[in-house]
Amino acid sequence: MIRYRSHKQLPLVEFDWPFQTKLDKNNRWINLSECIPWDELAEGYYRGLSDTQGRPTKDARLVIGAVIIKHKLCLSDRETVAQIQENPYLQYFVGLSGYQMEAPFVPSLFVEIRKRMGQSVFDVFQSAIIDAVESAKPKPKAKTTSNDKEGEPPSASGSSADEEAEARQGKLILDATVTPQAIRYPTDLSLLNEARQFSEQIIDKLYPKTDWSKKPRTYRVKARQDYLAIAKPGHERLQTTGQRCTGTGRRRYRNSSCSTDVSIASADIVLISSELEKVRLAAALSRRTLRTIRQNIAISITYNLIMVPLAMMALITPLVAAVSMPVSSLLVIGNAARIRTLFKSVR
Asked: H helices within the chain, ranges in order?
């Protein structure tokens, strides 16, 4: 349901600002808000909405201003809402009557906004902006010819042709960077086929570095045939081929022929992050772990060499033997627990 209010520009002096400092009148967002035809843009935004059904929508200037901020600053949905919540100039730009600490709307609203703003809405926006720019330009003054007599209308042959020629003077520059190109969408079948070929290349390069006796099956011939059977002109069964290629990839990973498994099997150390410092930490931790293992073995052997002969010769009481057994185990466990403190010292 449309909840409309006037989008005429609010003067900066009437903007409710709780702090003592004044807002800068020459701020870029204030200057930009004065150039945008908000009423015409709101009319195009409300064109596809109902004025009697549905819940009340957000104000058109708030929605359109938020979209402009998002694309002008290249922000995400959450960051756009956070910037509007923190910046008083952005709140003035989106049409709020005063500064507020709360967020103007939830970031998930951008999903609905993108659904509503189709090609027809942007066509209205484009025409409204062009009309605003044209109306802001100074109109050229009409020149009167000296051949016209007083009291007689000017001749239509020479003056109109001269004015049309003067109005069309200048150079037209076309920007070809925004021309629609052959953009591939995620549903394009060729993307799935290229991913399959790339995974096969990774397996071919990493397999010789492993100790596997048999190379994993990739089903590349069958997958290629399934792709070509649908990719030829005249076929429309794209979904069937996508399922076949996806099934081929699933069989490949299910048979342990995944490129990640091959990499893990052929590497001494596997990093799951981009920090090479972890290699040094892993090497230091492994050396200390081996040292702790040797120490624990030495403690166990020493205990057995001392306590077993004493127990066999009845030189110690059963109580001392019973107490010494858990004490030796606690020594081994405590020595193993020292690895954590040693690892912190390496950091």
From this structure: 28-35, 38-45, 60-73, 77-86, 88-93, 109-116, 119-136, 158-167, 189-206, 220-231, 238-254, 259-266, 277-312, 318-346
